[in-house]
Amino acid sequence: MTTRQRIETWSGLLSLTFGILGLAYAIFGPLYQYTSSTTDPSGKSGTASGTANLLQMGIQPITLVIFCILLLALIGVAIAAQLHGRTGNNGWRTILWLSTAIITIFILISILSVGIFFLPAFLFAAIASIITLLSRNSPATRLS
């Protein structure tokens, strides 16, 4: 295995790892803050504040669908980077680029909320994708 193949494979695996970590933080991390105040009939008032995660606030079904599509794209990056690094097949390169494009679209749409948590995953997916272009004409990356 050449150095390019190793970098491509590890970039794909790191993209999946950081993507899963970002997804876990988006779901279970303390993203929401709340403050409430109450006054009882005797005139005493009290306040409460804290944080909540996405599960506690309630996940919309469309959010679950989008997170599942993102997870499939992350898995696609990892598998396609691994198999393209081994075989050099153009089909795996196409899957890798499509998966990276899906991750990019997700980040651009959600950059002001949870998209920031997926930037490391995107960067490693982009590295793996760019390496496929560098190794496009290299006969050393194809196994006979």
Structure, described:
Helix 1 packs antiparallel against helix 3 (61-87), helix 1 runs antiparallel to helix 5 and helix 3 packs parallel to helix 5 (119-134). Helices cover 65% and strands 11% of the residues. It has one domain (3-30, 57-137). The chain has 144 residues and is mainly alpha-helical. A two-stranded antiparallel ribbon has the order 1-2. The relative contact order is 0.20. It has helices at 3-28, 54-57, 61-87, 90-110, 119-134; strands at residues 32-39, 45-52. Keywords: Membrane, Transmembrane, Transmembrane helix. The chain crosses the membrane at residues 12-32, 62-83, 95-112, 118-135.
Separation, N- and C-terminal Cα atoms? 14 Å
Number of domains: 1
Strand order of the largest sheet: 1-2
Indicate the percent of residues in helices.
55-70%
The geometry reads as: elongated
Average of the residue pLDDT scores:
90
Radius of gyration from the alpha-carbon trace, in angstroms: 21 Å
Tell me the total number of β-strands. Answer: 2
Beta content: 5-15%
Uncertain segments are 139-144
If helices are DSSP runs of H or I spanning 4 or more residues, what is the number of helices?
5
Biggest sheet record: 2 strands, antiparallel
Structural class: mainly alpha
Give the SSE order as H and E letters. HEEHHHH
Keywords: Membrane, Transmembrane, Transmembrane helix
Transmembrane segments: 12-32, 62-83, 95-112, 118-135
